Structure prediction request, 287 residues.
Amino acid sequence: MDAAAFDALRPRLTRIAYRMLGSWAEAEDVVQDAWLRWETADRSEVRDPAAFLSRTVSRLSLDVLKSARVKRESYVGEWLPEPIVDESADEEDGITGTLMLAMERLSPLERAAFLLHDVFGVEFDEVARSIDREPAACRQLAARARAHIRAARPRFPISPERGREIAEAFFLASRNGDASALKSLLAADAMVVSDGGGQVMAFLKAIRGLEKVARMFVNAARKGLVTPSSAVRYTRMDGLPGFVSEEPGGMLQTTALEIENGLITRIYIVRNPDKLGQVRRLLAEEG
Prediction:
């Protein structure tokens, strides 16, 4: 396999690592490490290069995930996955930001078995080789994972068109401090989770309940903490509708919305600059 053939596999390999780690930067590092290992591997012993590389990426991701869990214990405020802007239907794997957060409660092996088999369609025999467990054990790991995250799967997926309509309405209502409009868009159990990573202003704890969430956005608009004209673009991030915005002081921010029955149940705001590299690159490419 030459570099061109490896590059053809890179998107899938990077997505496997990203779904495991919740960090695009770490995923890219893992895939690059996998390439270096492929370069020094005994090619005569490899019958299926794609399977070999998937196994390598899975094992490397497990190693990183174990150390990442230690880092997250000391993370300042709420932790959210790195937002990935991807509107390509070909790359859609059914994993939303909400589901990724639910997967944080899984053990590393449960997460690997679930992702490889249920999301990426890897047979359990190959999953077993990837994580050094018996196929029967992998089936049990995946089953436990499904049971843990069942509630996080969207029951009624929303169309991209309807998602954008709600995202646009929410953006306008939140930037104008329109309490009535906000309340008409929010579910009774609406929640805001914001991730600043201790580097920029963000709420250290999630804000829960329609009234509190609406009041938070109204107050932010009144205090000039947001600007009505700051939308950069409406998009989808990890399967969720939302938008990228430029906040006062030139700060970049992503907002993703979980929507059930036409109402917003979760609002995920990422402001941590270390998690916005992929978004910055995309905006730069678009000019």
